[in-house]
Amino acid sequence: MDTPSPSSSSSSSPFDLVSSALGKYIPHGQARAARAGATDEETARVRVHPGPPAPPAGRQEQILGAVNLDQELRVTRSNLEAPVFAGLEIVPGTPFVDLLPPWDVPTVTRRLRQVLETGEAHVARVQRLRRADGSELVVSMSILSAAAPQEGLTVSLIAMARRLHLYAAETAIGTSLDVGETAQSLAESLLAWGDVAAIDLDFAVWTGEGVTEHGQGRIRLRRAALVPDRVWPEGYVTPGDDLPKEAGQLLSRMIRRGDAAQAVVIPDRKSVERLLGSAKLVRALVPSDRSAGVACIPLVLDGSPPVVLGVAEVWRRADRPFDDSELLDLQELVARTSHHVDLARQHQREHTQVLALQRRLLPRTGGDTVETASVYQPATPDSAGVGGDWVNSFPLPDGRTALVVGDVVGHGLGAAATMGQLSMEARALLSAGLGPDEVLEHLDKTVTMLDDAETGLTAGYSALGSTCCIAVYDPVSHRVALSSAGHLPPILVLPDGRSGPLAVRPHPGLGAEFALREPFGVHTFAAPPGSMLALYTDGLVEDPAVPIDEGIGRLADAVSTVHPWDALEEAARWVVSGLSPPRGRDDVTLLLARMIGYRKGDTATWRLPAREDAATRARTLVSALLREWRVRDDTRDRVLLLVSELVTNAVRFAGGPITVRLIRAGHGLLCEVGDTGNGRPRLGRGDPLDDGGRGLHVVHRLTARWGVRWTDDGKVVWAEVAR
User: Residue 406, exposed/middle/buried by CB under 10 A (0-12, 13-18, 19+)?
Assistant: First the structure.
């Protein structure tokens, strides 16, 4: 083997650093003294599993080595002089993967190339290497990028003593909160004791449900991980497949004896086939003809009674039977890592709950006057749960359409609870007739209240700084009223193709300090039929490599290419797939709204002076229009009575000019009467001798629904009559 010359103190090469640290971890004299006082069991273990040749006297046993690779993953130099690495044939110019078992080559090659491409180290992979005599050495392998100006990789190898192996395996298994990744890490660690390792988990672990005691006939197991990565025979259970019902029952009985879950070893192929009892189960559970014995170790949560999460299976060839010490090692590793599997299950439950809430909040329809499409893309699985992005679009009772997008600070259940509350509160307030600026004022107070230590939703969670943008589209005037609380500006694309972010006045996020609070402004702009509005969250446009304005510009360019005839759902997915950054750490949300509006012939507006004859004039104008629209006589009579009552109330209680608007929609006729008053009409119980308030009772009986919304110069009372 080639041994590098000692590096200078200024060298920063990972290979040189690892080589210089080739340690003296286990003093040979101490090891000899320890063996002198060892128990009979430990002595027997040494005889059964002889170690590498003893180092010369005066030296200490080394367990650390290093290999340098070029861009083609060929060995350029190595430092594997420690006796523990004896038998590894590694020659400069040969592929590094020649040291690996064949079934590990695809996975390790993929890991090596990932580090080459990304520069992100891959640390502490439990790996087996092949010696020239056919035996194998278990190591902890880390892959690092070579330091500039060198190119390639440095692979450090630590020979795995028993304790070091258990520690490294547990450390690697506890790095993910994903159920599949956790099971895969456990299976890779168990492979040091066998030829094939599989993890079968209770189906409830996958769904995040609470795992309880099961009857023997009801347990359901799903394969979570299987190593090594190879082509398996037809009928064999691979990751994602459910085990046959008989197999689940059998494994459940095997690992349970009384109230305790125990490991079980089936020593040879004949015993395995006799126990399984059918050719179908043999094909489903036995990985190959060479597999002779199996150790089944339950993943158990301590408790009273203990709860079994699943089963780990380690298969071996006939010439490598399990001994008691190895079975104890397997049980110890599985016992140490069972709680990691349960943590992943709990995270999966939280993830599923939050994601279900996210999906529930996505818009179903934008109404008859707006076409909407939305995309929600959660962050990568290794993020801390699903974030608090949300979008919503819904028709308001008065015929307008609300478009809402928000980004709640944080991840997990705290963010989800806040997100759900803000979304529902915004919908209720908008439906009650409040303007977008007034709704944001209420949401601002809600976020402040939720941050209170005593009344907050989740201890230790704060939603201060969350953002929200609300747009309300009027399909008659074809105008949009928009207010924003710290949110990125929406993108408007006009029918002629011009596009860009709206010039919305900046405002702090929700729950900002009192000194920073300002009244929420309302930005009003025209959105002719055919216009498209894009609302989004920062995960779609933020990229550490480019300024945020450039990301917004890219979004504007992408949205402007959507053709008016394109299906909006497909267009939204195309925009997100083209812009969302790789390996995103934040949720991505996009809402596209294509404005349709009402046709000119389906609406009419009249402005009348507040005089005693206003109701009569309104009836005359509305009656002529209803005849033109060919409305049925009974419906026309109801509409005329309704308009008369609303106009009379406006003249009596409000004063000022009166606006009457009639809209022919698909579901009925919408009547609106606006005035300059700011009093809220209320429907009282109505006393037979009370002359006031009878008009609203008439309106209530004639309509399917009615309500009030406020404007800058007064209010509008609207009512809907079914056709």
Answer: buried
